[in-house]
Each structure stands twice: as C-alpha cells, then as structure tokens.
Amino acid sequence: MDNLNFFLKYSLLFLILMIFLSCEEDFQDFPTISYNPCEIEDVSINPNFITDFECQSNFILNNVETVRNPSETPLNTSNFVGLYTDTQEPTDFIEIDYGSPIDLSTNTVFKIKVKTEISGELRVMLDGGSSEAVIQSQNVHGDNGWGIYIFDFSWRQNENHTKLKVFFNYGVEVIGSTPNLYYIDDLFFDTFIDPCENFIENNNILSDFECQQNHELLTVDNEIQILNNPYPNEINNSIFVGQYIDDGSDGSDALTINFNDPINLTENPQLHIKIYSSISSPLLARIVGGASAIEISNNITLTNEWVNYVFDFSLSSNDQTQLKIFFNHNVTNGTPTDMYYIDDLMFLPAPCDEPIIENCSNVVQDYNIISDWNCQQNYGIETTVPSVLNPLISCDNRSEYVGQYTDDGTEAYDAFILNYGSIINLNTHNKLKFKLYSSSSIQVLAKLEGGSAIEKWSDFSAVNTWQEFSYDFSDSIDNENTTLVLFFNAGQNNGNPEDIYHIDELRWEEN
Fold first, then answer.
1. How many angstroms separate the CA atoms of 444 and 458, rounded?
2. Residue 9 has pLDDT above 60, yes or no
3. Which 8-state DSSP code applies to residue 225?
4. What is the domain extent for residue 498?
5. Cβ atoms within 10 Å, residue 290
6. Which one of 174, 227, 314, 364 has the fewest beta carbons within 10 angstroms of its own beta carbon?
C-alpha cells in the first residue's frame, strides 16, 4: 500500500512539471506585463512632494529607476521606490530643477528616505537662482536599512534657489565593477516645527547655535556660520553647529564674547566648548575686563572628531566682563582660513572631586593673600608650613595644594608666627580668613601682636572636612600691630608632639 502511494505522488509531480515546461515557450510570446505604481485615480497633487515613486511623482528623476520596495518596513511601507546607481564620478548627483524659485515660505525642511549598504556623506545643495548656493551634509550609515535624513533650510526662506541637488557618498570615486546602489523614497519639503518655541533661556549657555543663542560671538573678519552638524556622534548629536574661520597665520586673533556686566562664575565656573577640527593646535581661553585676567591653556590633539574641552575658572574674581577663545594661539603656521566646527559654549558647575589646576605664569602678586600654597606665596611661610597635596578635594576646597602645619599638641600655646616687619595695613582689608582641615575638633586663636595686642577665638572646628574661619579685626586698625599669630588647638596640651593640621587660602579680605 505504501509503495502505491509513493508511486502516485511522484507520478503527479512529474505530470505537473511536464505541463509547466510545455507552456514555457508560450509564456515567452506574451508582452511584458505593465504596471502602474499609483492605483488611485484623480490624485490631488501635493506640490511639496518631489516624488514618492507612486502617486506623488511630480518630478521625473533622471538616472533613477522605479522598482519594487526591496524591504517594506514600518519606516517605509511603500510598494514602489526609486533605485539610483551611483556612477564612478565622485561628485555626481540627482538634480531637481524647479525652473523657478523654490517656495520655502512654509515648507522648509527637505526629507529623503535612503536604504543602502554604502556609508558616506549625503550632501544636499540648494543651487541656481540669484542666491549663493547652500550646502548641508549628513552621514549615511550603510546598514542596508531604511533611514530618514532631514535637512533644515528654514533660515533660507527668503533666498532665491531654483534647483535641488542630492549627492550620494560625496567626494568618493566608485572603484571596480560593483555599482553603489541607493534605494530612495519620499523626497519632499515638510513644514518646519520650531523646537525652540517654549524653551527657557539659560544665560549660562553662551550659544548652542539652536535655541540658546544668548550672547553674540564676535570675530575679527568672519561671521560664525550656522550649519547642519556634518559629523554627529555620541559626543555631539546637535542638529546645528557653528562654523568658525580662524586666521591660522595670526596667533592673536580670537573668538570674543562681551558680557557687558561682570560675570559671576561662583556656581558655574567651568567653560565647556565642543570642537571638531581637522588640525592640531594650541587652544587658550581668557577672561578679562576685571582687576586681573585669567587664562587657561589646552590643546587640540584629537582631530576629525568632536571633543568637549573644559576650562576651569574657579579662581575668577567674578569681575571679568569679556571672554576670549584663541584657536592656534601664538602660532602662525596655519592658513588664513583654518576652519573649526564649534558647539555648546556654556558655563557649568565644577565637579567637586576635581582639583583646580592653576597656571601660575603671569600671576600678579596680591599681598593681601598671605599664602594659598600655590601661585600666591608672598611671605615665605612655606618654609614652616610646607605645600602638600590636598587631603580632601571637595566643593569646600578644590585646591590641588594646601599648607601642612605641624603643631606640638603637648604645648598649650605653641603657634604659627608671621612677623611682617612693619605695621600691618588694616585700613581696608581687616578680615582674616583661612580654610582648615582637622582630624579633631579644635579651636584656633588668632592674635595680632607688636602693638596693642588683640586676640579672637574661633568656634570649634568640624572634623575631617574643610571649613572656613573668619576673624574681624576692624577694631584694630589703629593698633599698629606688626605680627600675626595663630594658635592651633589653643590652650590644650592633650595632643601629640606632631599634630597635623591642613590650612589653605590664608588671607586678608575687605570687611
């Protein structure tokens, strides 16, 4: 019985095959089956569509073939799409000639869907007409999936262009016999949706070239051009960035921002700027306009990628009114048109666990500062209170170096002594301040001697944290004191012969 079933099955299969083969030659005689991608009659034309290769095919694209969609996905459910075969020329393109100025009064955002295995630059150009050509670029990821690429021309609404050109893998010559294929679909101009409609202005953001353009960026000869981010990545995925042209043959030209009023950097001292550069160069940020300028150096070493550069102005006196950023600082080996992409210029809080790295070159001595154990060491006390690494970098004290005072805890009134050798001028600066870090709770007695002596006691200190002490000596202006004395753990003899205390920013301030 099984053998009979087997015979019948394969006899039927053989019969079907013979019928198919006998009809094959007849099939060759039939004309090619024609098809119409648009099955809807009386379609209302949407003038903002260039083509969807179906019902809204308002322009015929040369060198683009209408084909079945090879991959219908939720991102592109079309039955038919276009197929463009890239030629060997590195700058070949698809051109859409409107024959008259393109109307960008309301629909300003050009969109195109692309599916390809080729990664490279997708460049779109507005050309023709009486206005200068406009170029925007994006990177195409050749993952063979459909992607939507968006080009915003909203700031070109009033310009005159008659042609739209689309370049695939711009600047790359096709080598070999294997063609570069691009499936494309839904080329159209969409309405612009203002992402900044309900944003809240943040003046700590100098400019992000999008919603937060709160300060004017000034240059010597060139304006900062706003354009599409040509190289978006995880560091900077902004849609728009700035293009800064620097005279690389002039080491002193700079990008300048005038604040007009003094800028307070107490809470947001760190300047951030993202830079994409094809050249290595020294970078310097300087704030000026106050009692003293502060400048911080950096270097562009990583090229052809977005890098976030940080300049810490935590030591600012908060009276500066201008920021200058120097590209290729003090170097003249560049060209007059060195180009940098920049973005997200802003002041942000400083991380509390990062030390302030001070640059002591060109620091002007301030004799109201006794010592900060870094750039301001003005009375030589570091021989008895040496400079050491900060035992606890925190928001209360981010100094990299502090003073270390060794006290004989078995002596109730041994002390740190600073003899000025002349009368201490307390006319304006008569408030003594310093920061203390102690492993035990102590009091510090501050005393002025060498005239009519006067002493002030502190409260008990906190333990294992930085704390600022302050003493008001405004009542001692006429005492003609010449010596400052500090007694650590004053009046106590229950300590060790070498008790360690850390001290920082010992200074006189205005009362």
1. 6
2. no
3. E
4. 369-510
5. 16
6. 364
